[in-house]
């Protein structure tokens, strides 16, 4: 009886954890995945956090969809996904000059979903 009860408790805990993970995730419908923009940028900060990391960049005036803004916040995936794609917390540092490709926000806000970062040597890291 004790083993059956322990198994039931373990199964319940696992179910609750799965429900938490699913309910915590949000839709990416706010991004316009039909549109991909590329801008020369300077890295302001890589926020290496869960549930999603963020890349803060500064762009020269007049580039991209956000001409009146010089700073963009680009959402990335989870740390585990980034690590699987070869990212590290030190992949980007403040001041790095890069070419960034992203899906802009549907509402025109100065943000988006990161697609690719290309360095001046031609190498790139992809965000999936």
Please characterize this protein's 3D structure.
Helices cover 23% and strands 32% of the residues. It is built from 2 helices and 6 strands; from the N terminus they run αβββαβββ. Strands 1-2-3-5-4 form a 5-stranded mixed beta barrel. The chain is globular and about 70 Å long. The protein starts with a helix and ends with a strand.
Brief overview, please?
The protein is 23% helix and 32% strand. It has 128 residues and is of the alpha+beta class. A five-stranded mixed barrel has the order 1-2-3-5-4.
- Please give the order of strands in the largest beta sheet: 1-2-3-5-4
Instruction: Give the percentage of residues in beta strands.
Output: 25-35%
Q: Within the CATH hierarchy, at the fold level, what is the topology?
A: OB fold (Dihydrolipoamide Acetyltransferase, E2P)
Note the main sheet: 5 strands, mixed, barrel
Computed structural class: alpha+beta
Shape: globular
Distance between the termini: 46 Å
- Give the name of the CATH architecture: Beta Barrel
Mean pLDDT: 81
Task: Spell out the helices and strands N to C.
Answer: HEEEHEEE
Tally of individual domains: 1
Radius of gyration, in angstroms, nearest whole number: 19 Å
Number of strands: 6
CATH class: Mainly Beta
Identify the quaternary structure here: single chain
């Amino acid at each position: 009886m004790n083993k059956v009860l322990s198994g039931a408790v373990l199964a319940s805990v696992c179910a609750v954890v799965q429900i938490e993970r699913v309910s915590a995730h949000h839709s990416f419908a706010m991004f316009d995945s039909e549109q991909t923009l590329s801008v020369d940028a300077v890295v302001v900060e890589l926020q290496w956090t869960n549930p999603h990391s963020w890349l803060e960049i500064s762009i020269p005036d007049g580039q991209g969809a956000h001409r009146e803004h010089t700073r963009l916040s680009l959402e990335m995936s989870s740390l585990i996904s980034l690590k699987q794609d070869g990212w590290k917390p030190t992949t980007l540092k403040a001041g790095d000059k890069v070419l960034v490709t992203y899906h802009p926000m549907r509402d025109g806000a100065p943000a988006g979903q990161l697609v690719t970062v290309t360095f001046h040597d031609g190498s790139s890291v992809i965000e999936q």
